[in-house]
Task: inverse folding
């Protein structure tokens, strides 16, 4: 593919929408400037193009196999991840004190997104390792950090998250894995973990598992869950590898997509003890995991957007080249066919993709930018406000892209028609890959309950109020541009409906009824946020058009403006039906008896 | 799976909603009665359960291979199709005069749907053979019918449709395959055909291709297209097989789903002449093909509903058995988890599937019932009215199930979570299989232009007006049941909006602008029809509840009533935004310049 990511759009977000300069001026990011960030993104694109992109189809067609007790993955995967590691991308977001490059989170997200777009299955290994290392950095002891962090930041060892079990996916309170105390601060892990991405393979020299388990005698439910570190190979005090830690590969899951990412069922203490060390304090495992999961949810949302982008760019290229049909007013069958991009319905499907993908990227990018603002904030109160704001945004930033960029992939297939349905083109792979994103790191319905059952209620609605204020600010800026009057008014109206609906649900004393339509609320909430992101982008584009833009630049900004218009006319009006339904506390689902199915 | 189709729902449609008795009382169907139809459906279920269902996963995992010039498909496929043929299902819908069983079309559709639900990839071979034979029956010469019909009705020879070419899928006007006249009424076919399902294999003794081609010197565009019959092996006057007809398999398409159905690129006259005979008159190929395509579109819509049903029943079974989580008001972590069917959001996803699948089945079933009414009508004017009505309904009956039962499959995966994403459960296969349905037999956008650009305009809107009158009738019946007052009022309002939107588009002089949002119109049009189908079903269910229903029957009718309520509260309100957009003749897509992407 000639263009597999849109660098221009990344730069637009970083420098024109979010103002990266604010971050780069802060002491925390003093080692970086606009040029170094640009060079880093160039490097990501070059490495991804050279090593990740060419083997995406290969890894999809040759999923991991269980051969003589080991996982077999095409050898190109290890080489590609080595190239990624050697270019420094495992260490990019970590603090200099931990051996990292301390780049802004928003730039790290965009760089990792480039790899995701090229080859999601491979990028997952790096993503999981970073999430694992981030948790270790935050809650590990000095000894744990010294032993495990450096090889992970160098990309020599990979990391996993061991949360789910065969009987407990969404319901972590019910995990059954035990951690029995041994002398010398060790624990013996007993049990099975399911859906472990990167759980066993030969792509790295060691695998560091972060495992949720219960110490016998602890309280029931989530309060009894602790977090443990268990490596595939034990690690000596000097960092050298010791013996195998008895974590047995019990089976591989054969997935619909993301096939290059090995996904395992693991059994602990098989044939011997699986030794683990406690991370932080007992009983706080889930709290620590949620720390990581906020980052992971953002990553999943962004990965969904990147899958969407891959499909969008593939179908865009196809639509420009494929000649077929004539425009409705041309009845001459001997006239030459037109590129299908000229058909209104193909434009609609391209616009639907552009609106979803670039809207979603703006939202996940904005969340990462807020994380950076939090990191550079001197004021504790400001950090708390940002935390509350991120708390409300995160479930949406995970979910909306997962739903709507999957829908974008559906459109990409449709544009290619029969060709899109074959494995000769990447669009069906993006569609299959993306289907996991509404499921993992907390399924859609779980995110919805997190948002409506918890986040909009916390601290008297602090995060929600802060969010509404941010949107009001964007509306105020939009009002200054007369071209955007319709969109500005529509966003204000959408925000009012969001507020009224939220109030109506929170006023109910019936928790089950109030949460019954949480998923629909989450989706409409997301539409309001994406509308905001589009108004914001269109405001910037309008100013740029007024100021100076010509040539390529003008086309880019015109595209932003018109895509904003598309979103406000074709997508945002859908919230009316949704908010009316949610606000009415409709019980059609809740009261449907299971015997009626 | 314990239940892979819902026989109760089929009987409900046939006997309680559509009144099959009207058909069975007609002379045309005198050989059938309620008991024989019931026995036929029993037989379909038994054969499908024994032969089709068990190898659905096998055929998906072992797609056709090109080995030494032949297509290799697991041998179980041939045996299963033999069992299907021996039970008489190839001949079911054909006239007795042609060697068929002359069963009502609606019953044939339901029977074929049972096979589709069990194994779409296999059912396709029978479906294509029937479509082919139906065209041959209608337009073939006595000699063509005598040679080819009997072995197809016996399921010994299969049929294909050769329309698309590599450069022309949606745009059939641009096909390039040539038919050069030879002596003795033969033609030599030259060219390539793409996406030919069942195009080459060893599952049958011969393959009868229906091929669109142009006779040199004819007019450009669709008027130059004629229809030809070309067998894989030439057929002697006595019906015996002659030499190979030089139709070369040039390649297999590797699809995302429906993998058991071999899909080919065929080259005609490779190494020798491909001899073909003309079907009907020259230049009428497309008209003949559309005759078949009406039936095929109905079949595709029904197949989409059946894929949806497969996912629905799988996820329903899973939701009843899988224990996880607790209800929102229960804060005791030591209490046992509940079956996930008790969670409101899981109920919502099941209801969304039920509403889409049973609504779609009602719509496709109703269309087939109208075909039967047309077949038994004595009055030519009545037949024309039914033809106009079917003309408007068919693009919707093809499209709505293809979109919304695919969405249903997405919900089925979501209910199973990580398990749903693996190939250990059939839900991801249904999702992949179903993704083809919005593409083949006329892609979604083509159906939309057929509906808004043609069908609602034909004969001064005759078909559209007839349809509106039918819906008004259903509203009038619904009004008699006080429980349905909200739904009755909502359907009337929806119909008014459909009428107003249609008028607004037809009033425009700008054809390109009028058609720019045809796909959104088609989708909302479908929502109105499905709303109608649900009100109709709920009216029947309400009467049954008043009259007598108890036990299992009561649960069934309660389910119908509550699913109707779900559709009217959660789905139908979506049309407001859609009709407002379409009625405003919005140009956001049409005027988006391709250089802005």
Result:
């Amino acid at each position: 593919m000639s263009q597999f990511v849109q660098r221009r759009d990344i730069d637009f977000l970083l420098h024109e929408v979010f103002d990266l300069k604010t971050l780069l001026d802060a002491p925390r990011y003093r080692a970086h400037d606009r040029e170094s960030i640009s060079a880093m993104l160039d490097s990501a694109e070059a490495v991804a193009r050279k090593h990740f992109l060419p083997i995406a189809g290969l890894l999809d067609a040759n999923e991991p196999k269980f051969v003589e007790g080991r996982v077999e993955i095409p050898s190109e995967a290890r080489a590609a991840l080595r190239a990624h590691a050697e270019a420094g991308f495992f260490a990019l977001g970590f603090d200099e004190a931990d051996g990292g490059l301390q780049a802004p989170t928003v730039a790290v997200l965009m760089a990792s997104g480039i790899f995701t777009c090229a080859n999601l299955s491979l990028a997952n290994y790096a993503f999981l390792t970073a999430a694992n290392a981030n948790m270790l950095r935050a809650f590990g002891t000095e000894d744990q950090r010294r032993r495990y962090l450096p090889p992970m930041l160098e990309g020599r060892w990979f990391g996993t998250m061991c949360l789910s079990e065969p009987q407990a996916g969404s319901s972590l309170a019910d995990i059954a894995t035990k951690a029995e105390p041994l002398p010398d601060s060790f624990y013996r892990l007993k049990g099975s973990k399911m859906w472990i991405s990167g759980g066993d393979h030969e792509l790295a020299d060691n695998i560091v598992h972060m495992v949720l388990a219960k110490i016998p005698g602890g309280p029931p439910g989530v309060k009894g869950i602790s977090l443990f570190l268990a490596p595939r190979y034990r690690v000596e005090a000097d960092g050298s590898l010791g013996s195998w830690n008895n974590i047995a590969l019990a089976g591989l899951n054969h997935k619909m997509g993301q096939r290059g990412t090995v996904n395992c069922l693991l059994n602990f203490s098989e044939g011997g003890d699986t030794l683990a060390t406690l991370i932080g304090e007992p009983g706080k495992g889930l709290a620590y995991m949620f720390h990581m999961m906020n980052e992971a949810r953002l990553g999943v949302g962004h990965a969904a957007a990147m899958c969407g982008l891959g499909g969008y760019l593939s179908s865009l290229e196809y639509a420009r080249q494929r000649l077929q049909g004539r425009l409705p007013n041309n009845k001459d069958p001997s006239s030459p066919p037109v590129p299908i991009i000229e058909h209104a319905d193909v434009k609609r499907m391209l616009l639907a993709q552009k609106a979803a993908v670039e809207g979603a990227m703006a939202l996940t990018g904005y969340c990462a930018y807020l994380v950076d603002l939090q990191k550079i904030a001197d004021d504790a109160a400001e950090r708390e406000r940002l935390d509350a704001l991120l708390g409300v945004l995160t479930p949406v930033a995970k979910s909306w892209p997962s739903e709507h960029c999957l829908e974008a992939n559906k459109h990409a297939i449709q544009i290619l028609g029969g060709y899109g349905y074959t494995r000769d083109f990447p669009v069906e792979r993006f569609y299959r890959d993306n289907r996991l994103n509404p499921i993992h790191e907390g399924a859609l319905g779980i995110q919805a309950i997190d948002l409506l059952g918890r986040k909009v209620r916390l601290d008297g609605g602090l995060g929600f109020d802060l969010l509404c204020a941010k949107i009001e600010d964007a509306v105020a800026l939009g009002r200054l541009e007369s071209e955007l009057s319709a969109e500005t008014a529509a966003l204000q109206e959408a925000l009012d409906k969001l507020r009224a609906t939220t109030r109506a649900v929170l006023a109910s004393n019936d928790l089950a009824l109030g949460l019954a339509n949480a998923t629909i609320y989450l989706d409409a909430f997301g539409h309001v946020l994406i509308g905001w992101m589009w108004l914001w982008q269109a405001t910037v584009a309008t100013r740029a058009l007024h100021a100076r833009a010509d040539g390529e630049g003008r086309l880019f900004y015109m595209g932003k403006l018109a895509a904003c218009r598309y979103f406000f006319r074709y997508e945002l009006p859908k919230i009316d039906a949704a908010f009316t339904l949610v606000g009415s506390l409709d019980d059609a689902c809740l009261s449907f008896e299971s015997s009626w199915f």
User: Anything to note?
Assistant: The mean pLDDT of chain B is 96. The first strand of chain B starts at residue 65 and ends at 67. Chain B has 19 helices and twelve strands. Residues 285-321 of chain B form the longest helix (37 residues).
